[in-house]
Amino acid sequence: MYAVMGITGQVGGVVAETLLAKGKQVRAIVRNPGKAAAWRDRGAEIAVADYNDPNTLKAAFEGTEGVFAMLPPYFAPEPGFPEIRAILKAVRQALTAAAPPKAVYLSSIGAQRDTGIGLITSLHILEEELRSLSLPAAFLRAGWFMENSAWDIPSVRGQGKLFSFLQPLDKQFPLAATADIGRIAAETLLQTWTGNRVLEIAGPKRYSPNDLAAAFAHVLQRPVEAVAVPRDTWVDTFVAQGTPADRTAYRVEMLDAFNSGWIDFGVPGTEHLSGTVSLEKALALRVARSQRVVQETR
Question: Which CATH number fits domain 2-297: 3.40.50.620, 3.40.50.720, 3.40.50.2020, 3.40.50.300?
């Protein structure tokens, strides 16, 4: 039995699917019981847990062969990341009490740095908080999700423009598909090791914003142009998207770090793994999913 956090999301869902496909038992950890039915139908055991409650997390982790743990996304955290710190305190207490034989954690490219990484600071905090536990641990530093481009589908489909915060447009960035990240997480969870491991997870190659536009053009069969969003408009853009005006700094800092190369792979002492899912395949799946959602809401 393997416990999986974040099972209703992209990476956690792939972790569970991969384990089930290999004939392993899965305990699906959900915060909302209403989202458990699909996984129960697939044979998973359901554990409802509050991520801030070490007691419910302990019950979810107990009696397992391993745990996949991850943080819920916070795109506009409070200064100092108090929400993240509270969850990690509960996760640490639960893991200590439940004592599973190993754990795999979803981290991020750049998480080794303690300054200048914006939103990724939450994953630096995760690594610092959990690496001192006695159980064998693997921290997966994944590249920028290819699926983040799902946000661009409306403008790409409607205007033929991909508005990019990653810049310059011809710079190639380390992207990875969530299908590869989840698969590698599951495969790692089935391994045996001692101590702490750090795995860098990349895609089959690097991609630029221009490459993203070309991939969308291929998938949608229409011209698509990459357009750099002027940096002096970022804050206003994020606020217009719903981010509180006083919570934009972490996102800006993260983007600056990617664009400058401060966040990148190649950290000494890490294992480096390349996925097999191409950018075009990842985008095609997201476009198809968005079309299904539109059809289902009509």
Answer: 3.40.50.720
